[in-house]
Amino acid sequence: MTDTSTTSLWEGLQSVIAGRQFVDLTHAFHPGQPHFAAFPDEQREALFDLDKGDGFTAHRYTIVGQWGTHVDPPSHFIRGGRTLDQIPVEEMILPLVVLDISDRVAGNPDATPTLQDIQDWEIRNGTVPPGSFVALRTGWSRRWPDPEAMANRDSDGVSHTPGWSREVLSFLVEQRAVAAVGHEQTDTDPGLATSRQDFSLETYVLDQGRWQIELMANLDGLPESGAAVVASWPKPLGGSGFPARVFAIC
Predict the structure, then answer these.
(1) Residues near 158 by Cβ (< 8 Å), separated by ≥ 6?
(2) Sorted alphabetically, which InterPro entries does this protein's record hold (predicted)?
C-alpha cells in the first residue's frame, strides 16, 4: 500500500528545494589538522584494504569527540547537561542566521561581535527568529588546515583569534531564544581568553542547554538570513561531542 502522506511530503519537499543551493559547511577531517592543543592527533589504520588484496576497505579511527567540524552538546562542559543522544532530531534543521564580522577581523584578529552588529542585522532582516542557528562569520576558516595560521600565536604564545562576546551570546540566548550557535575558529571564546584558559563563553552557551558547532567551513557567500542549516552527527549513548556533517540550503 502506498503511503500517500509520505509521498505528498516528499513531493512537497522536492518543490521547495528544487533549484536551491546546497553548501557544505564541514571540513573533511584528517591527521595533522588544527585542533585544541590538549587533544591528541587522529590515528587512522586500515584494518582491511582493497589495495592490499582484501575484499573490502575498513578503517579504524582513533579521535577525540571534538575533532574537526564537530558538535558540542551541553554535557561537554556541564555536569548533567544534555548528551548527543538526547538532542532531538527536530533541532537538527534550523533557520540559519549569519552574523558577519569578517571585515573587522581582517584588520583585527581579536575582533568579537557587538550588540550593534545584532541591531544592524535586525534592521536589515527583521528579528532574529527564535529557535535559529546563529553562525559567526569571521573568515577564519580560510586558514584551514594550517594549525599555526589557525592558532595565530604571537612571540609570547598568546593566540589572536576572533570569538564570540558575552553580550551578544546573552542577547541571542535570553532575548531571541536561539537554539544553537556556530563559528569558524577552534573555540567559542576569543584567543586572548583561551590563552589564559578562560572558556567562560563556551561554558555559558552550554549551560543554557544550547549546543554548538565549531570549526565550520564555507560561510563566505551565504545569505545572512533566509537559509536553513542542517546539522547531523552520530548518536553515541551519553556522547559529549563528535564530528558533525553540517550544510546550508539557501
Answers:
(1) 191, 192, 195
(2) KFase/CYL, KFase_sf
pTM tops 0.85: yes
84, three cell numbers: 548527543
Cα separation of 67 and 215, whole Å?
A: 9
C-alpha cell read off for 234: 552520530
Alpha-carbon distance 179 to 6, whole Å?
27
What nine digits make up the cell of 14? Answer: 522536492
> Would you say 77 and 209 are in contact if contact means Cβ atoms under 8 Å apart?
no
| Residue-wise pLDDT tens digits, 22-73 | 999 999 999 999 999 899 999 999 999 999 999 999 999 999 999 999 999 9
Three-state DSSP string of 112-175: CCCHHHHHHHHHHHCCCCCCCEEEEECCHHHHCCCHHHHHCECCCCCECCCCCCHHHHHHHHHH
| Phi, psi of 108, rounded to the nearest 5 degrees | -150, 100
How far is the first Cα of the chain from the last one, in angstroms, to the nearest whole number?
35
**Local structure of residue 51 (DSSP, 8 states):** G
Helix, strand or coil, per DSSP, at residue 75: helix
Separation CA 89–CA 87 (nearest Å): 7
State pLDDT tens for residues 97-144.
Answer: 999 999 999 999 999 999 999 999 999 999 999 999 999 999 999 999
How is residue 99 written as a grid cell? 552574523
Q: Note whether 212 and 182 are within 8 A (CB).
A: yes
